[in-house]
Amino acid sequence: MAAVEIVITREETDDDWMRRAACKGLTHLFFPAPAERPQARERREATARQVCAGCVVNDTCQVYARDHHEYGFWGGESEDERHAAGYRLIAPIGVRARNAG
Ligand code: SF4
Question: Which of 5, 20, 29, 88 has the most crowded Cβ, counting Cβ within 10 A?
């Protein structure tokens, strides 16, 4: 019987950078609660922005969110800021509502 060598390697995946995220455990700062009021959104996003400013994967995170049309606050950017930068949300309900009128 021939010896069989099994080699298991772990490939680097596109989302490995998430393991170095400074926002672990802080989901409440990066995604809105239901029926969040504008003033609460401003305060929440200001705090999230501070966390992102000290995050070592900020640039990668911002590109990821833009490329994947993410909702919430990613890479120092809100949904509105991504939208304004030309990275449209797939269903920009909140952005449309906030920018209407
Ligand atoms: S840049 Fe901000 S949202 Fe992105 S991983 Fe870092 S802390 Fe989280």
Answer: 29
What gap in Å lies between CA 94 and CA 8, rounded to an integer? Answer: 45
Q: Cα separation of 5 and 49, whole Å?
A: 49
DSSP structural state of residue 45: H
Residue in 17, 51, 70 to alter for ligand 1 test, most ligand atoms within 8 A of Cβ: 51
Q: What are phi and psi of 74, to 5 degrees?
A: -140, 140
Residue nearest to atom 3 of ligand 1 (CA): 74
41-51: per-residue pLDDT in tens?
Answer: 999 999 999 99
Q: What is the pTM of this model?
A: 0.80
